[in-house]
Amino acid sequence: MNLVPFQPTHAATVATWPQSPNESLHWCGEYPVTPETIASWSTTNEVQAYLLMNNEEPIAYGELWLDDEETELARLIVAPPHRNQGTGKHLVTALTNIALTRTPELIALRVHPNNSRAAHLYQRAGFHQVDEPTATEWNTHQPVAYQWLTFARPQQQARPLPN
User: Fold this and answer.
1) What's the CA dihedral at 127, 128, 132, 137 to 10 degrees?
2) Is the domain 2-108 a CATH 3.40.50.2300 member?
3) Of 32, 37, 135, 157, which is the most buried if we count CB atoms within 10 A?
4) CA-based nearest residue to 77, from 147, 8, 25
């Protein structure tokens, strides 16, 4: 599997991945979501969209939302035949690795409050829930009270002292 920049030619495929209106709302806050909408998401400099490919087959989609102070992983979805096989964790890890190379201090993501499976996956990938005051602040202008998680950067290992 490899992560590649999203090409709009795959938008129609990605649009078929939500299996219900609820899943679409949890994924991107919209229903229905059209190929044209998906293709338009990455047309700004602040959004980098990616596909996880298995050979020539797109199997997962995700975005990095960039600004000077943080990067947010967003709109993460796995193709139905590839769910529950580690594909989601692979996507999150690959996107996080890109974010680590370019992001300042904060790598975050939000999860719909009714999407506990996704929240569990993100925690297994190294994300931790923010404290309640922070979540409340970040949810001030949001349509729902998202669960917010941030990536715990690995601590640099201490070098042994020279003899």
Assistant:
1) -30
2) no
3) 135
4) 25
